[in-house]
Amino acid sequence: MADSGGTSGTRSAVEWLASAAPDPAVCRWEWERNPAGVALLPAGRRWDVLMLPAELGRGTLDVLARLVPRPGPVLTDPGEDRTWFFVPPGTAARWLGTGVRGAGRGTWVVVPHPGRGSAGMRWLVAPDGSGTLTDPAVLELAMHEAAASLAESAGTEAPEEGARGRPADRGEGQGGGPWTDGES
């Protein structure tokens, strides 16, 4: 097998991402042999993906950088003008938010090799192989702050609560803050 990446961190990231595939060896082969340098991986097994409009996504990533030592993996796809945040499995099914797309169980995601970019796709925060994902509650907080900052710089008010991204079933009073596991 060809080297799956230069550093041990990249090799760990390759193994972690490939572990989501039905056949990890085929995933690694795709990254090495596919001219586009991408593999299709199923969401909902190891992670879900929340895709934000690029401007909001970049602002959200800036806020996350101040809130946490290292967010989970983040991709950008300039062709679709989206920023993709890797979050725990099940998040996409419970997330509500105008302009936020989710990829969870039953969907497939185009993922570049963690040590290289590809045609259009590139890592803003590459996975490190540890399995670290962005906490949905922290992502929500960062999105709110980024949206408010964007609105302020545009000279408008921040969107109403229903227009902001947020997990469904807020769970107020359930002891878990704004995030809930979806159970009643």
Mean pLDDT, all residues: 82
Main sheet characteristics: 5 strands, antiparallel
Secondary-structure element pattern, one letter each? HHEEHEEHEEEEHE
> What is the helix fraction of residues, given as a range?
25-40%
- State the oligomer: single chain
Walk me through what this model shows.
This protein is α+β, with helices and mostly antiparallel strands. Helix content is 32%, strand content 20%. It has five helices and nine strands; from the N terminus they run H-H-E-E-H-E-E-H-E-E-E-E-H-E. The chain has helices spanning 8-18, 24-33, 54-67, 91-94, 136-154, and strands at residues 38-42, 48-53, 74-77, 82-87, 95-96, 101-103, 108-112, 122-125, 166-167. The strands form three sheets. It has a five-stranded antiparallel sheet with strand order 6-2-4-3-8. Strands 1-7 form a two-stranded antiparallel sheet. Strands 5-9 form a two-stranded antiparallel ribbon. A hairpin with a 4-residue loop joins strand 3 (74-77) and strand 4 (82-87). Helix 3 (54-67) crosses helix 5. The chain starts with 7 loop residues before the first helix and ends in a 17-residue tail after the last strand.
